Amino acid sequence: MHDFDDSTLVHGGNDNRYQDNNALDTLLFSQFLQMDAQQRGIANCQHYDRRTQTQCNLHAHNVWSEQLSTLIDAYLLWKHGSCKSDGDDHTADYMFEVCGIGIMDLEPSLHVSQRPDEPANAVLLHLGLLGCSPIQPTVAICLECLEVYHQIHRQQSSFSIQAITKVLCALHNVTYSSSFWSQFAIVFDIYLEILCYVQQQVNIVLKRDPKDWHFQGACLCCAFEQPNEPQLIP
Questions:
Q1: Beta partners for 97?
Q2: pLDDT in tens, 41-59
Q3: Phi–psi pair at 209, nearest 5 degrees
Q4: Strand residue runs (E) in 133-172
Q5: What pLDDT does residue 28 have?
Q6: pTM of the shown model
Q7: Which of 22, 60, 106, 227 could be 47's S-S partner, Cβ–Cβ 3.0 to 4.6 Å?
Q8: Low-confidence residues of the chain: pLDDT under 70
C-alpha cells in the first residue's frame, strides 16, 4: 500500500472542506503560478489562514456560484460528446496538474491545458472530471465515478461518502485519508448542484415547473369516487 501524494490530499482537507491553501505552495499550484510568484519576487512562506470556518465556506460558495453556469455548459457538452480534444486547442496559456481518480483508473499526474479566461473546472469537465476546488484543483474525480455513487446512494442511503472513498482507496491500493473524504464530498456537492440545475431546465421545457403541474393533466371525472362504488377490475 502507498499513500496519495500529499499535494493531492491536503488541498481542501485539514477538517476544512472549503479552505484554500497557500497560493505560493509549490506542491499544490501550477507551474504558471510558481513562475508568476518568482517574477514578482514573492517568497514561498508558510501561511496560516485566520478566517473562520463560516468565512471559508461562504467564500468557496461564492466562487463556485460565479462559475456554476460555465460548469453546467461544460458538463452538457461532455454529456453529449461535443467537447473538442486537447490537440485542437492551440490557445492554451498554461498547464496545471491534477490527480485524476476514477473507478478503476488512477492518474497521479494529469497535465491539463487551460486558457486564461476559462475556469480550471470547466477544462476538467471537458475531460470528464470535476475538481475539488473552484480555483486551483489538485484532485479531480471522474464523472462516471460520481454518477455511480449517486445511484448507489439513491438505492442505499446508508452507503456514505466515507464508504465510497475507502472503496476507491482499496481499488487503487492507496492508504485511506480523511482529507480524501473531504475532497470527494466537495466534488459530489457541486455535481449534485449541476444535476439539479439541468433537471430544472428540463422541467421548464416540459412545462413541469409550476407547483400544480400534476393537476394540469388530471381527469376530474376519473378522480371522483362515489360511496360504495364497486371496484373496477383490473
A1: 111
A2: 555 556 677 888 888 888 8
A3: -80, -30
A4: 139-142
A5: 40
A6: 0.71
A7: 22
A8: 1-47, 83-92, 234
Q: How far apart are CA 11 and CA 179, in angstroms?
A: 8
Which sign does the torsion angle of CA 78, 57, 20, 16 carry? negative
What are the phi and psi torsion angles at 204 (to 5°)? -65, -40
> Cα(139)–Cα(133) distance, rounded to whole angstroms?
8
Residue the block writes with cell 481542501: 12
- What is the rounded CA–CA span in Å between residue 34 and residue 29? 7
The enclosing H or E element of 73 equals: helix 68-79
Q: If you count them, how many residues does the chain have?
A: 234
Residue 119 preceded by cis peptide, ω within 30 = no
38, 106, 112, 113, 169 from 32: Cα distances, Å: 10, 24, 12, 11, 30
H-helix or E-strand containing 122? helix 120-126
Residue type for position 202: V
For the beta carbon of residue 62, count every other beta carbon within 10 angstroms.
10
